[in-house]
Amino acid sequence: MPIKQITIDPLAGAAYLKIKEGKVAKTKEFSEEVFLDFDVRNHLLGIELLNPCCGTLRKVAKKYHLSILDKAASPLEKILHIA
Q1: CA dist 37 → 32, 61, 79, 81 (Å)
Q2: Overall average pLDDT of the 34-62 stretch
Q3: Is 34 helix (H, G, I), strand (E, B) or coil?
Q4: What is the pLDDT of residues 12-24, one digit of tens each?
């Protein structure tokens, strides 16, 4: 499952990873700074990272069995200049 789009808001220090097209039916808090958007069928649509950190992204990937997200951590590190 490829990431469709990564949106970075440098002023807010946030990132949004669009996983799948669809209408958001609910948002679940994964952690204090990570929110997951789901459709009515409970398919993951996107991930909002309020304080982007690749370790957190890897935790989401592991919990939802999304290997592509773990692979996205490295490019995200380069975009956000984080380690």
Answers
A1: 15, 14, 22, 25
A2: 84
A3: strand
A4: 778 898 999 999 9
Cα 58 from Cα 64, distance rounded (Å): 10
Q: Is-contact 3 69, C-beta < 8 A?
A: yes
Higher pLDDT, 56 or 42: 42
pTM here is 0.69
CB atoms near residue 27 (< 10 Å) = 13
| Spacing of C-alpha 57 from chain mean position | 6
Query: Structural domain of residue 62, as residue ranges?
Result: 5-80
Q: How far is CA 80 from CA 24, 31, 59, 63, 74, in A?
A: 26, 20, 18, 23, 10
Give me the number of domains the chain comprises: 1
pLDDT for res 83? 40
